[in-house]
Recover the amino acids of this structure.
């Protein structure tokens, strides 16, 4: 199994805007589950507010690297990626075999 982990730093700096961005990102990413059959599991989590930490994360599981690549190229993922990019300033990712 391949675990895809991504973290983002939000563009917003005040708490109400950050909260709205977290909600938008969470809803957009979670909407992919019924649309992309390669997703085995997906969760989005927000940081608890520790200074210096990144703001929000995605953890998604796939059966194979090919399934992960299919997810990344899927038209619905491309749309959601645009939404996420519009609300974030930095991204880091790692793909692990678990």
């Amino acid at each position: 199994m391949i675990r895809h982990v991504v973290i983002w730093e939000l563009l917003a700096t005040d708490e109400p805007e950050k909260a709205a961005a977290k909600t938008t990102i969470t809803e957009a990413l979670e909407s992919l589950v019924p649309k992309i059959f390669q997703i085995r599991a997906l969760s989005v989590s927000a940081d608890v507010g520790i200074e210096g930490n990144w703001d929000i994360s995605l953890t998604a599981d796939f059966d194979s690297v090919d399934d992960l690549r299919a997810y990344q190229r899927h038209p619905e993922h491309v749309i959601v990626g645009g939404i996420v990019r519009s609300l974030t300033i930095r991204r880091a990712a790692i793909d692990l075999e678990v």
Observations:
- The first helix runs from residue 15 to 30.
